[in-house]
Structure formats: C-alpha cells, structure tokens
Write a structure and sequence with these properties.
Blueprint: H1 2-21, E1 30-32, H2 33-37, H3 45-57, E2 61-66, E3 69-74, H4 77-84, H5 88-100, E4 105-106, H6 107-114, H7 118-130, E5 134-138, E6 146-150, H8 157-160, E7 165-166, E8 169-170, H9 172-188, E9 192-197, H10 209-220, E10 231-236, H11 248-258, H12 269-281, E11 285-288, E12 291-294, H13 301-309, H14 314-319, H15 352-359
Antiparallel strand pairs: 1-3, 2-3, 4-6, 5-6, 7-8, 9-10, 11-12
Subcellular location: Nucleus
Main location: nucleus
Pfam families: RNA_pol_Rpc34
C-alpha cells in the first residue's frame, strides 16, 4: 500500500513538473486542487490529499493560499533534498524568504515575523546561503539594506531598477555604450549616401581646368582613376513618407542580438523606449513617423544651416562649405531639400532657414 502511494505521489509530481515547464510561468506556476485532480492520477479529493501530504513531507511541494483558496507550488528535487536537512529555525527563515517571491525580504522583517533572535536569523542565513537556497540582492530603494530571495529567482524591477542598474546603482557606462550602439544603428538607416561630381570650370581659353589637369595626367601616365571628374560624398534625406527608418522593435532586435548586454532578455522594448526618449530630448535623434533617424546625418550643409539659425551672416556661414553664389540661399544646401513641397512636412512657407536668410 505504501509503495503504491509513493508511486502515485511520484507520478503526480512528474506530471506537475511537466505542466509547469510547458507553461509561461515555468517553475513559478501555481496549481489549484481542481487542476491537480485533472492530472488523472487519482479520482477523488481524499486520495489527492494523501498524495499531496506525502509530497509536502518530502518538501517537494508547498502549501499556499491565494484569494482565499488553497493552492500548491512545486520545489525541485535538489532544493527539497537540501530543505530536509534544515533544522526548525532554518526552515522557518527559509519559508519567509520563499513567501517573499521576487520582491525579497530583509532580516529585520524575518525576525519580526518568526520571533527568532537576530543571532539565530543571521546563522540561519549563512547556512541557507552555503546550500545555495537563498541569495542576497541589493535594492535600489534601500541600498544600505541587504534583502534575500530564493537562489533561482530573478529580482523584479522594483528591486533592481531594471536593466540600466547594476548592483543597485545606475550603470552609466552601460547606458552610454548602448546609446552609442543605438545611434550607430539608426545612422546607418537614416540617410542616403550619394556621390556628387564637381562641375569643370572653363578658363579664359574656353578649355576646362579639369581637362587640362587630365591631359597632364595622361602625359605622366597616371592611373585611369585620376582622369575621372572629382567629387565628394554627401548624405541626403529619403523622400517624404519614407517608411524605412528603424522602429523601436527593429532597434530592440539589433541590441538584443548584438551580444554586449549581460542579459539581453532583461531588456524590454519599454526600457529601450525610455532610452530613445532621452536621445530625442538630447537632440541626438528625432522621431519620424513610427521610426527614428539621427539629427546630424547630413555632411556640409548641417553646420552652415546651424550658423544661419544662430544669427550669423549668410555669407560667413556659407563660406565654411564649398559652393557657389546660388548655394548661398538656404535652398541650395538644404538638408531636407527632397522633403520640401507644397503641403508637405517641409515647405517654403514654414522654412526657418529661408526666413532667417531673408532677414539677414
């Protein structure tokens, strides 16, 4: 009879373990009495009670109460084997820590609830830590207080502060590295790089200076590349309505796959959104529709336009970048020229650059 009862208890435990591992909650899954009956090991509540009592005696399952109903939580066989070796005081301390879940608890609270002397609590803590049943965790709310939770649990964000905190302190270096990586990724998908050829300038004889240099290069036997017209690379905006800017989801995927975070799974999109909001506030990136792009993705014209907005003379501002008389007008070097159109997001009526230039 005893052997059959033990066999049924083991079968119930295995079925509960499989159900927990296949559920979203994992090991933290809570079972109600009705759910245990549906496992099909026994067909009556009385028989189930005998099986559960056997598992509780072996420390493989613990009794809980949620919303006024009795329920049960599993323990691993390794943890159960360690708990069996604890004395009464150590087990009382362990139960208090176990009940605190991912919030954890500190020694003063344990002392008050168990009515155990502080010296005994401290000794019990050392035993539980040595058996790797519990672990100390730093809390951002009370850095001076050491809280404890079960060894296999991960503290919630109320305790750790989220992925931007390390050992209870704001990880400034991690934030800076992540921000640089985010900006680098956004910059690669923000602007279109084009090659601008320089126009040859005719001299007094009507022969282009560029051609004269090429003729000399031919005589000297230079590489054919030297005969190509000179030019420079610049970046221009994508057309209005462009939907290829990186979204929060795309940036989150890049960061989690990059591999420089200790625990990529701990970084939620909401955490990344907070970082993006800070970068927007710092004017390092800007939000375009549902995506983001860098604020300084255009070479050359950006500094000139910045000088114009700061009230400098137009001629002085344009002198800093190469151009001709036509390009002294803001339209000639506008970083968002391709977006400018009547009724569009950028147009001549609301152009800050153009109005400043007219008043200069």
């Amino acid at each position: 009879m005893a052997a059959k009862l033990e066999e049924s208890s083991s079968e119930l435990y295995e079925r509960c373990t499989n159900a927990a591992l296949s559920s979203p909650e994992g090991r933290a899954k809570i079972f109600g009495q009705d759910e245990l009956l549906k496992m099909g090991v026994v067909d009556s509540a009385q028989a189930l009670l005998e099986l559960v009592q056997g598992l509780m005696d072996a420390q493989l399952i613990r009794l809980m109460q949620m919303e006024g109903k009795i329920c049960y939580a599993l323990r691993t066989k390794d943890d159960a084997a360690k708990i069996v070796t604890l004395n009464d005081d150590e087990r009382m301390v362990y139960n208090q820590i176990e009940n605190s879940g991912t919030n954890g608890t500190w020694t003063k609270t344990i002392k008050q609830r168990t009515n155990i002397h502080q010296t005994t609590v401290t000794k019990a803590m050392k035993t539980l830590e040595s058996k790797k049943l519990v672990k100390p965790v730093k809390s951002i709310k009370n850095p001076a207080q050491k809280i404890y939770m079960l060894y296999h649990l991960s503290p919630n964000e109320d305790v750790t502060g989220g992925p931007w905190f390390s050992d209870g302190e704001l990880d400034v270096e991690l934030i800076a590295i992540t921000a640089d990586a985010v900006i680098h990724f956004i910059a690669q998908n923000s602007w279109k790089t084009v090659y601008i050829k320089r126009e040859a300038t005719p001299d007094a004889d009507g022969i282009s200076k560029k051609r004269k240099r090429n003729d000399t290069a031919d005589i000297e036997g230079s590489h054919p590349k030297s005969r190509r017209a000179g030019g420079y690379e610049t970046q221009i905006s994508y057309p209005a309505g462009w939907r290829g800017y990186p979204t929060v989801s795309a940036i989150h995927h890049f960061i989690t796959e990059a591999g420089f975070l200790k625990d990529s799974s701990a970084l939620a999109e909401s955490d990344l959104q907070n970082l993006l909001d800070v970068l927007v506030f710092d004017e390092r990136i800007e939000k375009i529709g549902n995506g983001y792009r860098t604020c300084k993705g255009v070479f050359g014209a950006t500094e000139a336009m910045k000088n114009i907005m700061q009230g400098r003379q137009v001629a002085d501002a344009v002198e800093e970048v190469e151009g001709n008389g036509l390009s002294q007008a803001p339209c000639g070097r506008c970083p968002v020229f391709n977006l400018c159109e009547d009724g569009g997001p950028v147009n001549a009526k609301n152009c800050e650059y153009f109005q400043t230039w007219l008043r200069a």
